């Protein structure tokens, strides 16, 4: 019987089969955005600094988990005076609450979308919520296989106490804030790097 000779090969293969895939963000294309609305106009913005720990097989979702860490101070609405006000104790109070985090408790497919349930912690308040993403995959201009996850979510800012004590917010700022999320990146083995096609070299010219 050849079983004794196969066992070492199987034992070597098991760690490879169980290896976790890691999603590395392409920060140039990833967006953690939001849109607040006043009685007169919308205020779009985004957070410029963030980290992500995303793991799991994109095909089977085996071992899937998500943790997002956002630097609240990095918010940007393209108006410096407004950004400073949003960073103040009237709104995000970044001196006291410098981080916004999301940690998943469950990731599963729901039709053609990805359902991520977890806890959002912001402004000292933790709330359970569900993010629904539209996944897509393809090859970018450099020939690297790339995945993206796009989703939107409406939040009541007063659930987190953001702007609850601001006179200006009470007068004109609506309670609902829309989150606009776009996560773009590459899956790789936890011990390696994304598989980027090797550059082609020209064969030496025949003499």
Notable traits:
disordered C terminus; mainly beta; 46% strand; 8-stranded antiparallel β-barrel
What does this 3D model show about the protein?
The chain has 207 residues and is mainly beta. It contains 3 helices and 11 strands; from the N terminus they run H-E-E-E-E-E-E-H-E-E-E-E-H-E. An 8-stranded antiparallel beta barrel has the order 1-4-5-7-8-9-10-11. The chain is elongated and about 50 Å long. The N and C termini lie far apart (55 Å). 17% of the residues are buried. The model is unreliable at 1-18 and 195-207 (pLDDT under 50).
Provide a compact summary of the structure:
This protein is mainly β and 207 residues long.
Shape: elongated
**Total beta-strand segments:** 11
Largest sheet: 8 strands, antiparallel, barrel
Amount of beta strand: over 45%
Helix content: 10-25%
Q: Within the largest sheet, what's the order of strands? A: 1-4-5-7-8-9-10-11
Poorly predicted segments: 1-18, 195-207
Q: Strand pairing plus helix content: what structural class? A: mainly beta
N-to-C CA distance: 55 Å
N to C succession of SSEs: HEEEEEEHEEEEHE
Show the helix and strand layout.
Elements: H1 3-17, E1 21-25, E2 31-37, E3 42-47, E4 50-55, E5 65-71, E6 75-76, H2 80-87, E7 99-110, E8 113-122, E9 125-139, E10 145-156, H3 167-172, E11 176-189
Antiparallel strand pairs: 1-4, 1-11, 2-3, 2-11, 3-6, 4-5, 5-7, 7-8, 8-9, 9-10, 10-11
